[in-house]
Amino acid sequence: MTVTIGRRELLAALGGTAVAWPLEARAQQGERVRRISVLMNLAADDPEGQARIAAFLQGLQEAGWAVGNNARIDIRWGAGDVDRIRRHVAEVIALAPDVILASTNQVMAPLQQATRSVPIVFTAVTDPVAGGFVASLARPGRNATGFTSAEYGMSAKWLELLKDIAPRVARAAVLYHADNPGGIPQFAAIQAVASSLGVELTPVGMPNAEEIERSITEFAQVPNGGLIVTRIAEAIMHRELIISIAAGHKLPTVYPLRFFVTGGGLISYGPDIVYQHRQAAGYVARVLKGEKPADLPVQAPTKYELVINIKTAKALGIDVPASVLARADEVIE
After folding, report:
1. Residue 180 shares a structural domain with residue 318
2. 202 plus 61 within the same structural domain
3. Same structural domain for residues 137 and 231?
4. Greater confidence, 182 or 263?
5. DSSP symbol at 36
6. DSSP letter assigned to residue 242
7. Distance CA 120, CA 116 (A)
8. The domain that contains 56 carries what CATH number?
């Protein structure tokens, strides 16, 4: 789906409403309208995607770029579909935008294959150096820069949290995808602390919805189990299913991002990706003013969130320790 956003849509997005209709951009006298293309990995009706776009638009407005005045934005939603994302990439390149905002490795990989010249600002990308998107974090050196999702080592905190909130857990299934390059290092970081915490790990692949349900159901047949969901695109796209299955089997589960918990999950720890999109607007504004992505260092997350859903905890029969509640950035009653 493609969306072109104008002044009225900007107001709607900032109010949390989905946007859909176009408005031609009108520049002030003598000022060229700049074109910004946005490639999202989520679906157009995904509330998380809308929140990220709203944050980005707000950041642009604060930087002096008025949509419908001196800027025009085209948004394409990939909905986790690799073929659709590739088609959108081709469409965006054909538009010859001044800069592209790209979300996640799933979008960046085909985008970097398609262009080495159009400026790109990325968000929520795991290990952009290993992905070949930049030469280094300090000196990207190419046509892309942006914001990483998190470093792999912090994944160990998910298992620590699982033991903190559910001390009886002796087995943990780790949901990741073997074909996603970001999933394996996250599993390795969790594995590195598993023995010291007395937890046996079971890797669970996520090739499709049927396999996710089958694997978790099979794992849940043995008591004292819990789940850890890694921070990859496949988990995000199947999050409603994972949350539902975890609840059905009463499995305490640690998630990588806040919106899993607002959607009914138990607890999450991870970067604030919505805020990261607001930050990305600052980089886009700098590119529009003439700076090169090659000279803008890739930034690591500056905000991490620990979020707990008390309603879910009660449904699971979990009494959240006061020590965990005290560390929480948000508690959902």
Report:
1. yes
2. no
3. no
4. 263
5. E
6. H
7. 9
8. 3.40.50.2300
Structurally, the chain folds into a number of domains equal to 2
Q: Does this model's pTM top 0.70? A: yes
Same domain, 192 and 115: no
54 and 168 in a single domain? The answer is: no
Tell me the sheet residues that pair with 255: 268
Encoded tokens for 226: 């819990």
Q: How many whole angstroms from its chain centre is CA 164?
A: 25
Distances in Å between the Cα of 187 and the Cα atoms of 238, 300, 304 are: 18, 20, 20
Beta strands 71-77; 171-176: pairing state: unpaired
Domain range spanning residue 47?
Answer: 2-149+273-302
pLDDT, tens only, 176-195? 887 777 888 899 999 999 99
290-301 pLDDT tens trace? 999 999 999 999
- The token duo for 154 is 């912090």
pLDDT tens per residue, range 83-132: 999 999 999 999 999 999 999 999 999 999 999 999 999 999 989 998 99
DSSP assignment, residue 153?
G
pLDDT above 70 (res 10)? no
CA 243, 246, 248 angle in degrees (round to 5)? 105
pLDDT of 150: 83
